[in-house]
Write a structure and sequence with these properties.
Elements lengths: L3 E2 L13 E5 L3 H12 L3 E6 L5 H7 L4 E3 H7 L2 E4 L3 H12 L8 E4 L3 H4 L10 E7 L3 H9 L6 E7 L5 H11 L7 E3 L2 H16 L1 H16 L4 H10 L1 H19 L2 H14 L2 H15 L2 H11 L3 H11 L2 H11 L2 H7 L1
Parallel strand pairs: 2-3, 2-5, 3-4, 5-6, 6-7, 8-9
Antiparallel strand pairs: 1-9, 7-8
Amino acid sequence: MARIYYEQDADLGMLRGKRVGVIGYGSQGHAHALNLKDSGVQVSVGLYPGSPSWAKAQAAGLPVGSVEEVARDSDVVMMLVPDQATRRVYEDHVAPHMTSGKTLMFAHGFNVHFNQIAAPPEVDVSMIAPKGPGHLVRRVYTEGAGVPALVAVHQNASETALQTALAYGKGIGAARAGILETTFQEETETDLFGEQVILCGGITSLIKAAFETLVEAGYQPESAYFETFHELKLIVDLLYEGGMEYMRYSVSDTAEYGDYTRGPRVIDARVKQTMRGVLDEVQNGSFAREWILENQAGRPHFQALRRQNAEHPVEQVGKEVRAMMAWLNQAKR
């Protein structure tokens, strides 16, 4: 059984007298920094000069400095910049200040697991990876709860790396919900696989294929959008709240029967075999190499794919339909 840590297992005292530097102030960065601050941790934010986030962080009451200044002055450095920029930021601004006794932390294991970053052996290397986007990590914390997280230790020079990581996890609220112990390898490979085959890649490809099937059969695009896209959130909410059984209890018997009998025809053994191929690419590092090379080349293929997908008819119809939903427009403000 996996080990799960809760608030009683984590001691914020491990961070007492220490300075925590959060590098980046994006989705995760702002949430980590603000939650740590509200938990009484001495935290500062490292940004590049001229960053538009500089004023935002200062307005939130956070000390801000350059990445190099914050890395130099911090005992614990949490890297929260995008995967493709992490190695450069680390090598140019953080690595010179990774001295004995410090802790280098990540919220995703990509750069460590795929050997893009190698900290000195006298430095602790650990991970706290919240299982939710940053705005949720922040909002749930302010509501008195927390988003679950994963914890892993890659280097344990101090022999207290796990305790320090758990203290950090408690500081951002994750220990309220549970912090599951894992490894950098497991977190990285399962995260990439999940993003590609279901959470992002799988679900968007399924939506587009279903939408296209209905439209090509002569149905109105708006009707197709409602059936294949809009209602998805309602079903996912039910799954999130009570699992598959609760979702099936909540829908009609007709929908439940169609689930049992037609779902496996769509997601069949061939799809599972393809998933195994995707997992192989994650495990053997070929996806990581492809993504690293794509970024080194200036991301031409990525940008082309972004444009192509933004122009897909389901996106165009969706914008028109959502524009008519006043409650959605209010929620975005």
